[in-house]
Design a protein that fits this description.
Blueprint lengths: L2 H12 L9 H40 L4 H4 L3 H4 L7 H29 L17 H18 L3 H12 L2
Helix pairs in contact: 2-5
């Protein structure tokens, strides 16, 4: 698995840049591992089936139901099997590539759905200067607050009750 080649291929096909540390490469590795395991299982099944067939042919020959001449094959059939034709190889590569791209799409879609951008900084509002009337009202209010705090408790309660009215 050439990660650089895969990165280039994904960028050329989709325009999406992926990094070597991207989680999608973990899925590619997982895909390769699963594919290798499936191929191993199939090869074992084919070996077992071939051995069973050879045992059956041997049993038929020993019982006399099959002559040795019937089993003899021409030399052309005994030639080694050529490697996988390029068309089949390209088909397998296309299937593996499609599975990898599907996994990449699922990962990217999940990131897009689950990713929430960090909230921006709160806007800073610059306070305007107070007008002279507002400054005077604040000073007057501070004087009233000090004067009320010097009153007795009953009068302070009456003032607080009056201030609660609309």
């Amino acid at each position: 698995m050439d990660q650089q080649k895969l990165r280039t291929l994904v960028f050329e096909k989709t325009g999406v840049r992926i990094d070597i540390d991207d989680p999608i490469f973990a899925l590619v590795a997982l895909n390769e591992a699963v594919l290798a395991e499936a191929v191993e299982r199939h090869v074992e099944l084919l070996d077992d089936a071939t051995a069973d067939l050879a045992d059956q042919v041997q049993a038929l020959q020993e019982s006399g139901h099959l002559s040795h001449a019937a089993v003899v094959r021409p030399a052309a059939l005994l030639a080694p099997v050529p490697p996988t034709p390029p068309l089949q190889e390209r088909r397998l590569i296309a299937i593996a590539g499609g599975a990898a791209l599907l996994c990449a799409f699922v990962v990217l879609a999940g990131q897009a759905l689950l990713f929430r951008p960090a909230p921006g900084a709160a806007p800073v509002i610059a306070a305007k200067e107070l007008t002279p009337e507002q400054s005077a009202a604040l000073r007057h209010g501070e004087k009233l607050a000090t004067a009320v705090s010097k009153l007795d408790a009953k009068t302070r309660a009456a003032i607080a009750a009056e201030m609660q009215k609309p």
